[in-house]
Amino acid sequence: MGKIAPAAKKKDPLLEFCRALPGATEDIKWGADLIFSVGGKMFAGFQMPQAEPIGFKVEPLAFDGIVGRDGIIPAPYMAQHSWVSVTERKRVSEARLKQMLRESHRLVASKLSKKMRATLGIE
After folding, report:
1. How many helices (H) and strands (E) does the chain have?
2. Does residue 14 contact residue 74 with C-beta atoms inside 8 Å?
3. Partner of 75 for a Cys bridge, out of 2, 27, 60, 85, CB 3.0 to 4.6 A?
4. Is 10 helix (H, G, I), strand (E, B) or coil?
5. Cα dihedral 36/81/50/87 (nearest 10)
6. Does the CA dihedral 96-29-47-84 come out positive or negative?
7. CATH code where residue 42 lies
8. Residue 117 falls within a domain, yes or no?
9. Separation between Cα atoms, residue 11 and residue 22, nearest integer Å
10. Each residue's pLDDT tens digit, 45-76
11. Measured between alpha carbons, how far is 44 from 55 in angstroms, rounded to an integer?
């Protein structure tokens, strides 16, 4: 696990939102990406220090309908796993981004074992 860079600790509403999700952990990977995970599985990534683009998982059936709207593109290297990338935060409302990040967390957490979800306090 990488060390959390000081810039990653800034008070960013989306970073704080991810930090508050049940069982969420954070780590710096690949040199400058702040990655949020649940149960050891990634659910969101922010390229630092600007915290954009933002990558996260979406429902596989919704992937094609989400990509191409509001500055959302297939996430490099992760699109095959239904991950998207929001290239510019200002193009998507904060409320919508939080909704999509919460859904990504839910999707990833739902694949964890029942025991792991219980340990993390996730229903």
Report:
1. 4, 6
2. no
3. 85
4. coil
5. -150
6. negative
7. 3.90.1150.30
8. no
9. 19
10. 999 998 999 999 999 999 999 998 888 999 99
11. 6
For tokens 């991950």, name the residue.
83
| 3: phi then psi, degrees, rounded to nearest 5 | -85, 145
101 is written with which tokens?
């990040």
If one counts the domains in the chain, the total is 1
pTM metric for this prediction: 0.88
The predicted model gives 38-42 an average pLDDT of: 96
User: Does 15 fall in a domain?
Assistant: yes
The predicted structure's pLDDT at residue 1: 46
In a domain, 115, yes or no: no
Would you say residue 1 lies in a domain? no
Instruction: Note down the domain range covering 75.
Output: 6-110
